[in-house]
Specification:
The protein has 134 residues and is mainly alpha-helical. It is built from six helices and no strands. The chain has one domain.
């Protein structure tokens, strides 16, 4: 459970960081004018929405583990693109990849935690009902 919580915290932190700081990054580091700075946030949220709408179809085709690992790799590549791109528009493309990669990680981890808690609750119930005998 601690591992799922740690991964969920990391995924949520990445999601929140891009949402909160992408525009500021484009203005201060990539020298984009203030009027166009939200160009990094739009692709991120579009990718997040598309990924979450298609999430269960993607999971049905690829499996939960592949979607989580592949999404993390995809998001890491997006962060590298956003940081290393010479132009602000390419950094926005990197934010798109981050959104696409991270979109299903948090919902899948929350779902996994829910299933794990149900199993643990059933085990505790069985332990109590059988007076501690396995």
């Amino acid at each position: 459970m601690l591992g799922i919580g740690t991964l969920a915290f990391a995924g949520s932190s990445i999601e929140g960081s891009v949402a909160d700081w992408s525009s500021l990054y484009l203005v201060t580091v990539k020298n984009m004018d203030l009027g166009h700075a939200s160009i990094g946030l739009g692709p991120f949220y579009c990718a997040m929405a598309a990924g979450r709408f298609a999430g269960w179809t993607i999971v049905a085709n690829w499996g939960q583990r592949i979607v989580i690992i592949g999404g993390a790799i995809f998001a890491a590549i997006g962060i590298l693109i956003a940081l290393c791109a010479p132009q602000a528009i390419l950094s926005a493309l990197g934010f798109f990849f981050v959104g696409a990669g991270i979109s299903n990680i948090l919902p899948l981890l929350i779902s996994s935690a829910g299933r794990l808690l149900c199993v643990l609750a059933l085990q505790r119930h069985r332990f109590c009902c059988t007076e501690g005998t396995p």
